[in-house]
Amino acid sequence: MITPHDGALDYDTAKRLAVSADPGERRRVAGSAATRPELLYFLANDRSAEVRREIARNRATPRQADLLLVKDPDEEVRGSLAAKIAALAPTLAAAQLGQIERMTLEVLEALARDQATAVRQVVAETLKQQADAPPHIIQQLARDLELSVSGPVLRHSPLLTDQDLLEIIAGRPLDGQLVAIAERAGLSAAVCAAVASTESEAAVASLLGNESAQIREETLDRIIEMAPRHEPWHGPLVRRPHLPAGAAVRLAGFVAEQLVRVLESRPDLPLTVRSAVAEAVKARLPADPPDIGIETAADEASKERPMDRARRLQAEGTLDEDAVSAALTRGDRGLVLAALAVLSGYGLEDVDRVVAGQSPRGVTALCWKAGLSMRFCRQVQLRLATIPPTAVLNARNGTDYPMTETELKWQLEFFGLKA
After folding, report:
1. Fewest CB within 10 angstroms: 53, 93, 174, 185, which?
2. Which residues, in sequence order, are CB contacts of 390 under 8 Å at separation 6+?
């Protein structure tokens, strides 16, 4: 069998093989760098997709033929063309472009708009670290709705300025796109603050894990204020380089015991800070019991049934998301279940049945009915219903519930509950 990349052919032989009934012979002509441009252009219309793929990959193919292949019905043809053309991007940086360069840019622009995600992804992966890539194409790719396209550019492109990134964040992108921004090397303080303000659990966790991110102390303080509701932040916070003394002490007040031990063993923290951490841990322990015959308000509260306590808090106007979050943080499962029942209007046994079912959609619908935010709902899925992290539902656009109201009501009705 003749392979497509055998040695150079003389013109007459190449011309004969270009019209051969054997696609293997036509592929040989299509894949040769020595084939004359007019034959390559002719083969750009070949009935065989494999032949057209060879034309798309061939660097000797005239740009006029590449313009034809931009509209090829075969996705692999366009993908092969994308890999070749995107690699030529540095040649398009000149102030004055010749005819060939203008056609190359036209091909690249078309591929960056291709209907197939895989084709746009090839362009993005090729251009993601190129300082000489066409800026307007980088801007377009960075705002692509598909994470596989926008992610590489958001994570790596040196052409994206802080202003670009701030505008993208202000547009409320998906969590995955925020994560890509948060993982950029040397992320500026202003962009760090913008990422933190989104309260995206995944993005802030990535930001905290990015040792090169320039997180100002005031930004870190705001993150720590929100952290009790976001367990995935605790580990990265405790291990954050150059952790301020005050931050370390505050973290000791709510992170898990194993993370407290990490804080206490950090050699970069001064001894005085580690001592303060130890004191903060002591403050978390139950106080000594009062004298016999004297009962405190806390003792009275501990005697209340969870449902009675939830109803009392509601009557006092304090049964809100912060109260439920605090109960979840300290492991008061009974109060969390009771609070969900009171806030949703369902019976405690109904709430327990939904949670025990470990259905991400069911638990999400329950949180919606209870008037809780989708961000907090993720914590309920993880920590109350013990749903695996890979299965939990995440907020859409950073804050929105990922299901329509009709879908949420259907989930509740599925559990026999009135929506």
Report:
1. 185
2. none
The 10s digit of each residue's pLDDT in 59-84 is: 999 999 999 999 999 999 999 999 99
Chain centroid to Cα 234, Å, comes to 19
Other Cβ atoms within 10 Å of 315 Cβ, number: 10
* Tokens matching residue 105: 């840019």
Domain count within the chain:
1
Judge residue 10's burial from the number of C-beta atoms within 10 Å of its C-beta, 0-12 exposed, 13-18 middle, 19 or more buried.
exposed
The neighbouring-strand residues paired with 400 are 396
Which domain does 381 fall in, by range? 304-414
- DSSP letter for 34, please: T
CA–CA distance, 299 with 131 (Å, rounded to integer): 65
| Residue 369 located in a structural domain | yes
Beta bridge partners of 396: 400
Cα–Cα dist 209/201, whole Å: 12
pLDDT in tens, 126-148: 999 999 999 999 999 999 999 99
Q: Would you say residue 217 lies in a domain? A: no
φ, ψ of residue 323 in degrees (nearest 5): -65, -40
Residue 341 lies in a domain: yes
CA 326, 327, 331: angle at the middle one, nearest 5? 115
Domain annotation covers residue 46 = no
Q: Residue 12 contacts by C-beta under 8 Å, 6 or more apart in sequence?
A: none
